[in-house]
Amino acid sequence: MTQNHFGPTRLDAALVPLIAQKWGTPVYLHDRAFIEQSCDQLLNMPNAFGLHVRYAMKANSDRTVLRVVTGKGLDLDCSSVDEAARAHSAGIPYDRMMLTTQEVPLGQEREELEGMIRNGLKYNVCSLTQYRLIADFAKQAGIDLSIRVHPGASGGGESQTRDTGSEYSCFGVHLNDIPTVVEMARDKGLRFTQVHVHIGSGGDPEKWRENIDRELGFVRSYFPDAGTVSFGGGLKVARMPGEKQADINELGTYAAARLKEFKEQTGRALRMEIEPGTFVVANSGYIITRVMDKKLTNEMNFLLVDGGMELLSRPLLYGSEHPISIVGQDGTLRSSEYDSYSVGTATPYGIVGRCCESGDSVRLDNEGTIVPVQVAEAEIGDYVVIGGTGAYSESMSPENYNSHRKAPAVMKMKDAELVLIRKRQVREQLVQNELDVDL
Ligand SMILES: *Cc1c(COP(=O)(O)O)cnc(C)c1O
């Protein structure tokens, strides 16, 4: 426990006022070294017959993040045609992308998609409708497909909203429909060379292992042409003390053993693919906010900070917990939930943002009531730093609510240099698509 550091990356608290003074608050911060270490860890996952790692770019789709991650050798999983186009505009070729989407692109978007596929984008069929729309094109262009299977078994974490495998979610072609789609493909002479399942985010590693067994079962029954099997993303990270992170070595060792078994039984050596988002970036990110005001009610002591749900919606959406640190105006770390570090007595504060929304807080219970966070006594002008915000924060937030402008992002490079990677939105951008019509 050192006084000047906090968080899994041991980010120096002294940087906080430097960043805040230079670029203002609220501001997102990313630690490049951390992202690269996560990539290395994933690329070194034990495997039997080869490993391919795709980064699920919806976790954080910023171009600098994409360049860092692909620079390490990870490819991408895109969740929409626009996401693929966005990655391409960052200089990433289509042959490094797979598209796994709920969309059924039509018209011009459909043509665009066909162009992407011709340039090497892998299409992951996620519904019967998608199959019917793509089949003729794939056949004529001589392109093999991937298929996402809905396993009818759940896998998500603490929240039903992140479970993508249960009967109450609708991702992929349901197992019930697999015989039909396999037969249609066989009749057409199309091949599914990859089978994919993603059961959800942040769940129990046991679910991840169960999914491997189940998935290999239906690869064996239905997919004779599959050479690659994707076990999806969903590798859990520990944001808060006491949470348990997925053990990449242990999961890889398990997967490798099952794949070797599969080879002994069938003679088929399957390459393994994984597509984590959270694991790559979650703990590389922080949000730096500034205490603007303090208020007291009969029930709660409040710190009002200048960024909340419009920067990070996970507490409101999922009840997720993110570790809070208090950094003084002089850059000293005063308290950190990462390691129960606190100077002086910890005080329970309701930490709220600036949106006109009673649930705009970083800590909420299941009913959406604000839960106080135990932190060091903080004054107006001190910093509240929210940790574990590298994934699903800037890419998934109700930005511009209350007409707040999207916050800028800074990356700490490997030589500790701080670089602005995204500017703060300007006011004009809030209204740039609105038209002045005659009234
Ligand atoms: C969101 C998503 C992922 C990544 O999930 P994480 O929990 O961030 O690892 C992987 N695959 C698909 C298809 C997804 O939709």
UniProtKB/TrEMBL annotation:
According to the UniProt entry, which residues carry N6-(pyridoxal phosphate)lysine? Answer: 58
Cofactor(s) for this protein? Answer: pyridoxal 5'-phosphate
Q: What is the organism field in this record?
A: Pelobacter propionicus (strain DSM 2379 / NBRC 103807 / OttBd1)
Which InterPro entries has this protein been placed in?
Answer: Ala_racemase/Decarboxylase_C, DAP_deCOOHase_LysA, De-COase2_N, De-COase2_pyr-phos_BS, Orn/DAP/Arg_de-COase, PLP-binding_barrel
Per the Swiss-Prot or TrEMBL record, the active site comprises: 356
PROSITE patterns documented for this protein: ODR_DC_2_1
EC numbers for this chain: 4.1.1.20
Q: What class of enzyme is it?
A: lyase
Source species, domain of life = Bacteria
Starting at the broadest rank, the lineage of the source organism is:
Bacteria, Pseudomonadati, Thermodesulfobacteriota, Desulfuromonadia, Desulfuromonadales
Q: Does the keyword Lyase apply?
A: yes
Reply yes or no: does the keyword Signal apply: no
Q: Which GO terms describe its biological process?
A: lysine biosynthetic process via diaminopimelate
Q: Which UniProt keywords apply?
A: Decarboxylase, Lyase, Pyridoxal phosphate
Using the record's annotation, list all stretches that form the Orn/DAP/Arg decarboxylase 2 N-terminal domain.
44-282
Protein known as? Diaminopimelate decarboxylase
Q: What molecular function terms (GO) are annotated for this protein?
A: diaminopimelate decarboxylase activity
